[in-house]
Amino acid sequence: MITTIISMFGNKCPNCNKGKIFEKRLLHFSFSFPKMHENCSNCGTKFEKEPGFFFGAMFVSYGLGVAEALITYFICMPFFEETFDLRIIPIIGVVILSLTLVNIKLSRIIWIYMFKDYSV
């Protein structure tokens, strides 16, 4: 379980744990959409199993965004007097927007790992 999580955050292939899924590392910030390899450079595993395979990764990305918003809220809550101060909303928005590209990559990696034993 721990090695799987380390491989996910290391952008490694779910089959051989050596090849990269994305061209850049997980925490690489740029203004372009992350580029993904079609196959693993080491073992040849195809990452996109069928057209529309990553549609479900949107739901994983939504869950990651909600978790980040809740964590941000609970971290910021002690710094405000009221239980829910409206000044927390922009802080949550900035955190979610700054982690958007990380969420795209991580949600696709999680989705690939969920279906790593699936073959067409």
Automatic annotation (TrEMBL):
This is Uncharacterized protein DUF983. It comes from the Bacteria. The lineage of its organism: Bacteria, Pseudomonadati, Bacteroidota, Flavobacteriia, Flavobacteriales. The chain crosses the membrane at residues 53-80, 86-106. InterPro entries: DUF983. It comes from Flavobacterium cheniae. Keywords: Membrane, Transmembrane, Transmembrane helix.
